[in-house]
Structures are given as C-alpha cells and as structure tokens.
Amino acid sequence: MWYLNMTAVLAIAGMSVIMGLTRRLPGQKRWLLLAFNLAFIGLYSQRLLVFYAAYTLINYALFVFLARIERRKLFWFILFLALNVGGVVLLRLADMEVFHHPVLGALVTIGIIYNVLKAIDALYFAYFIGRDAVCKPVDYANYLLFVPTFTSGPILKFRDFIADTKVPYQVDAAMAEACVKRIILGMFKKIVLVTWMTTAFDHVAAGTLNTFTSLFLMVWFYILIFFDFSGYSDIAVGFGRLFGYQVPENFKRPFMSPTLTQYWRNWHATLGDWFRDHIYMFFSRKSPSKWTGAGLSVLIMVLIGLWHGFTWLYVAWGVYHGIIIAAESLLKKSLVNRKKVSKLYFYWRCFLTQSIVTLAVIVYCPNHEIVIRIYKGLLHFPSFF
C-alpha cells in the first residue's frame, strides 16, 4: 500500500540512506527505526498511530505476562490468542460495515491482518520459551510496526526479527545494489504490469462472457495477482534488507510446484509457513493419524480463506484447496521429488497443480459480482455456427 505513494517511497528510501550513514552509532537499528516507524505512521494518520500505539502496548504487556507466568499458562495463552483473534474479527466486521462505530472503520484496519499474525507468533514464543523470550519494548514495537512489511507482509517471525536486532547493521555496496534492483523490479511489476493488466482484465470482464473468455480471465487474473503480490514482496524485501533486517522470501518459484501441498510452501510462503507452524504443528505434536492430519489441512485452508475475507466465496475456496491437500496426504501424493521422476511426469504434475489453482484464484478479485459472472460464463460454450 505504501509503495503506490511516491512520498511514502521517498521517505522509506531516505530512511534507508540514513540507516547506512549512521551504521556505526550504537543502538542505531533500534532507536532510529522506532522513531521512523512512529513518525511515518503518525504522518500517514494520527488516528492510525494512536490505534497501533495502544495495540502494541497491550500486546507487549500480554507477551511479557505470558513469558513470566508459571501457573495456568495454557489458560492465559488461549485467552490472549482469543483476544487478538476476536479483536481482528471485530475490526474486519466494522470494515465490512456490518455495524458502525465512530472509533472503528477501514482506517484502523490497515495492516491488522498481518500484524495480528505477528502478535500471535510472539505469544507462541513466550508460551514455549518462557522468561528467556522477553525482549526490550523497543524491539517488540519495531517488530509489530516495521514499515516495509506493515501493510502486506511478508510475515516476519518474532524469533528471527529479534535475532536480527542484535546484529550490527551490515549492508555493503553489493547488497545495497541488489536491494535497489529488487525494489525497481517490484515497482515495475506493481506500477507498470499490474496497472496495464488490470485495465485489460476490466475491459474483457465488462463484455459478454463464455467458456473461452472466462478461462482467459482466470489465467490472466492469476498472472496479474502474481505480479501484484510478488511485486509488493520484492519492494518489501529490498527495503527491509536496506534497513538491516532479513525479510523472508514470499514467492519461491510457485509455478514449479508439482503438488498443491508444495505450492503452498512456495506461494505466499510466509503465510503458509505461519499457519503450518501455529496450527498444524501445534495440534499434531503427538503423531496424529493420517485422517487427523487431513482434517487439519482442510481447517487450515478454510482459515486462510477467512483470513482473506469473511465471505462464502473464500470459505468455498478454503474447502476446495483443503480437500485437495487432504487427498494428496491420504494418497501419499503430497511430495514429488524432481530428481526421482521423469521430466514429463514432473511437468505434468506442475501443470495439474496450476490448473487446480487457476480454477479458484479468481475469488481474490475484489468485485465478487465479476467472480460469479466468470464462473457462470464457463457454462456458456460459444457456438461457431
């Protein structure tokens, strides 16, 4: 979101330069970054700053309490998770105008679906590690408010971010060059390709749809959102690393995924990793049966669907993906080792996976009336006579 505003881009770029020029100052990564995060969000919206200041302070208090408490720890852990999830649900419902409140609204929901995942990751760390998990307030605040990944990820892991905080600023000329090139590539995707492809998509979608045009729009939209999501990730990774933090990769050659299970480790990888680490691994610690594992796969994909939006289309999307991943697991087809199969079989499985994804990816389109029209269009086979 920030990266479509040139003033915001120049501010982040300027901060990258300042971080480089002050790299020898003690505590530079902590305090300069905190000052920038607060100033940037405050200049964007004072209301947003007040909301996130309160959100950060409350979650830091919960985090420290959970790390230090010994009795009824599981109870407090579940309660704090519920408070975070419940709060986000409330904000999303307000954003959808299910109800109206003078304090709530679309403005304060900026970045919340990403930042709540980070807050929950910190709670997990506190629950499992205990007192050794406690970090300084400034580091926790920077973790939640980290501007390069604030609105759309990639999703940072608490453990990795705190480890990076303790490492001196180390960005040399070669790394800076690579980061700048990455940022330029991301800008090209977001501003040039996505803008052009969106115009073309809207033009075709406005006409009469049949089987061929609907299939074309599905494939076209899939490529469009790849450039959109990966472009944002390129910019975030580039600026994040110029700030001195190792922002994880979000897209790892997803089109070369031979199964849907492997696809979700490569497409929006930090989101898939988060749900696998915090739900699947948490509930499957005692060697679950294959049916339990399959059920968890369906649950996770439905939750990912709801994370994107509270609509039946996203629920259906989650069930669709979840059932296929569960079937791969039950049939022992979750993994395909490229080195152990023929090229023909490997590429056939990649094509099959992409076809499965393409049939459902159109639900990401914010105009759900167009989504329904496209699906209906699939049933209208054109007559050539």
Shape: globular
Approximately how much beta-strand content do the residues carry?
under 5%
The helix-and-strand class reads mainly alpha
- How large, in whole angstroms, is the Cα Rg? 22 Å
Number of helix segments?
A: 15
Helix/strand order, N-terminal first: HHHHHHHHHHHHHHH
Largest sheet: none
The share of residues in helices is 55-70%
Low-confidence stretches: none
Average pLDDT over all residues:
90
Number of strands: 0
- Our measurement of the CA-to-CA distance between the termini, rounded to an integer number of angstroms, reads 48 Å
Keywords:
mainly alpha, 385 residues, globular
Outline of the structure:
The protein is mostly helical and 385 residues long. It has helices at 6-21, 28-44, 46-68, 73-95, 112-129, 137-145, 158-165, 173-205, 211-242, 260-263, 269-283, 290-308, 312-330, 343-361, 368-377. It contains 15 helices and no strands.
